[in-house]
Amino acid sequence: MRTPGKQKLRDAVYALYERRLTRSLSPDRIPRHIGVIIDGNRRWARQGGDPVSRGHEAGANKITEFLHWCDGVGVKVVTVWMLSTDNLTRPAEELEPLLRIIEQTVEELTAIGRWRIHPVGALDLLPGSTAEALKAAETDTHDVDGMLVNVAVGYGGRRELADAVRSLLLEEAAQGISIEELADRVDVEHIARHLYTKGQPDPDLVIRTSGEQRLGGFLLWQSALSEFYFCEALWPDFRHVDFLRAIRSYAQRERRFGT
Prior knowledge:
Elements: H1 4-24, E1 33-37, H2 41-47, H3 52-73, E2 77-84, H4 92-112, E3 116-120, H5 128-140, E4 148-155, H6 157-174, H7 179-185, H8 188-192, E5 205-208, E6 227-230, H9 240-252
Parallel strand pairs: 1-2, 1-5, 2-4, 3-4, 5-6
């Protein structure tokens, strides 16, 4: 058990290290777009002997903190993966509370009034109340002049690519373009214009918590040239210094963009 004196010293050292990390960051080496795979909520709850929903609540609270951190260093776009298409197969006793937490979180982010909310995912796979909450958030923040926050709910990278190709085919068919003509001229940019994140810069940095070192289907197309940072901390335990370390790591890398 920590004594008050030791805790005070620990907090002082932490604050000093945090300030040092902040000063080390160069404004011209800040990623424009950060993607984050929030992972570890359930493990965090189980380690504390709490119900899984408690972990999701703690994880939801961390999202707001994280967005403030990103905004504070000048990030322009953040994509937060809150629920995958695979997650939709979880048992109802876990999924339903999680969807309510997501709805509440999106409403709270909207109420802050600092960021533009943009849902990315297959909204048709979600319950009506969740889809409506996401659509309302986008409408209510449409004119906000601030950081763009992509809320990835019901998101899967393979599903996004399938939706993009489907959208492209329907658009071209409506213009009377034959399959042969389309096959002859379609290119990377044609598909990119039909992604959920169309018109946005691709993520410069993708962060994943909980020690897992895989994408799991997150922004498969957009992350082709991204830098990755894997953190051991479970998402609810992800600290400001962990965030600053990720930014520092990104800044120290020499990006070659595949060349």
